[in-house]
User: Fold this.
Amino acid sequence: MRYRAFVVAVALLVAACGSNNSTSPTPTPTPQRYTLTGTITDKSTAAPLSAATIAVTDGPNAGRSATTDSGGRYTFADLQSSRFTIRVTRDGYAETTDNVMLNANIMVNVALDRLLSGSWRGTVSFMFNGQRTTSGLSSAQLTQTGNQLTGVLTADGGVTGSLNGTADGGRFSGTLRIDFNPRCTGIADVTGPTTSTTITLTSPVLSLENCAGNVRDIELRLTR
Assistant:
């Protein structure tokens, strides 16, 4: 009887152990990997931009970067499928970012706004006491920091001026100051369209300080 009871106990133990067999863990899927390509261009002229840097700023691909070739083309190979942000920079152009959802081989093209900093040429004209007067600019030096634009202007005949305002979304809005002589100054609120190669700013009136006369219909036209 004891031997029989022992055999039954062993059989029950074996059965119990067999019912608790652990299953193998499910393997983690390998992330899909894709290629991101594109072209960087000048927004105003559509010309391709070489030497632009494209950097992935977040997500599992953060830290990857590429540089455009002579045709403005860039390539990221073997990127992990994910959502992330790219930052595009180039000397002389405003930095921009773009959001990317990478779940296939895709192309992302980016157009950059050229900064307005640098030397320009042009004219300033206005109606003075009913007659149109136009002066060529011997010098026009603009400086852009972010969307803030300032400028120093020198016109023929020794007239000087300055520009101060905001350039955003292809338009400028700010103040034009014209110093006709050390005492006579005119100030106008000007606005108008801007591109990487042309700026045209206008105002219906120029407010004069310490000088006589009536100045209207001001137009500052710059090109480069």
Summary: Residues 2-18 form the longest helix (17 residues).
